[in-house]
């Protein structure tokens, strides 16, 4: 009898041990919770990164759209001054948007003490004058028969003279970009009416025909 009880007790103990091995440990629950919390944190961080990337992409798209609009506006502006190419590669433009060609380079006569050293562009008083190229302003002053004169020095040393101006909107030492407004048409000095007398002097020396210089830059005055 005792032997049977012993065997029964051993069987119960074995069954209990088996159940203990099969059942989940009471200490496993926190580990499962930690793993689930970790996955949630990873998902939240991933969502944050995706949102940040979407915001950066949206910002880049807005900047690209703004640049495209600015380029369209720039292209239209440059076209007013005779340039119809890529706005990023513009080097030279015409000095004004609206004009009539008048006295040319090399003329002689009672209107000039010597040969006419520039090209005249007739226009209404106050018509804006722009920088034909990027450079530095080296003079803004009254210069006898030239009237109010602005001299723009280009990177290669070429001087561009704007004469007979009504006023100037730049100062000596100022750096200007191509097509920046620098003054306006006038009739100061030895002048018979409102016009721009434009001179081009390579290396600051003797003048050359401005029309040839502009045409060499691909423009059609």
TrEMBL record:
Residues 115-210 form the M23ase beta-sheet core domain. Residues 1-28 form the signal peptide. This is M23 family metallopeptidase. SUPFAM superfamilies: Duplicated hybrid motif. The keyword Signal applies. Coiled coil: none annotated. It comes from Nocardioides ganghwensis. PANTHER family: MUREIN HYDROLASE ACTIVATOR ENVC, PEPTIDASE-RELATED. InterPro entries: Cell_wall_metabolism_enzyme (IPR050570), Dup_hybrid_motif (IPR011055), M23ase_b-sheet_dom (IPR016047). It comes from the Bacteria. GO terms for molecular function: metalloendopeptidase activity. It holds the Pfam family Peptidase_M23. Keywords: Signal.
């Amino acid at each position: 009898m005792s032997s049977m009880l012993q065997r029964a007790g051993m069987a119960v103990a074995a069954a209990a041990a088996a159940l203990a091995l099969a059942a989940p440990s009471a200490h496993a629950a926190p580990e499962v919770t930690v793993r689930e919390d970790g996955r949630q944190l990873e998902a939240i961080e991933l969502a944050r990164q995706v949102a940040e990337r979407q915001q950066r992409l949206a910002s880049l798209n807005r900047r690209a759209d703004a640049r495209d609009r600015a380029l369209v506006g720039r292209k239209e502006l440059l076209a007013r001054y005779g340039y119809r190419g890529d706005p990023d590669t513009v080097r030279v433009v015409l000095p004004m948007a609206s004009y009539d060609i008048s006295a040319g380079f090399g003329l002689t006569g009672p209107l000039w003490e010597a040969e006419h050293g520039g090209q005249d562009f007739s226009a209404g008083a106050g018509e804006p004058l722009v920088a034909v190229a990027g450079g530095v302003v080296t003079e803004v002053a009254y210069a006898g028969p030239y009237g109010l004169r602005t001299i723009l020095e280009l990177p290669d040393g070429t001087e561009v003279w704007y004469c007979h101006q009504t006023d100037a909107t730049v100062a000596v030492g100022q750096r200007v970009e191509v097509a920046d407004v620098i003054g306006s048409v006038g009739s100061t000095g030895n002048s018979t009416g409102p016009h721009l007398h434009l001179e081009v002097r390579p290396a600051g020396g003797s003048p050359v025909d401005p029309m040839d210089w502009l045409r060499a830059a691909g423009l059609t005055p």
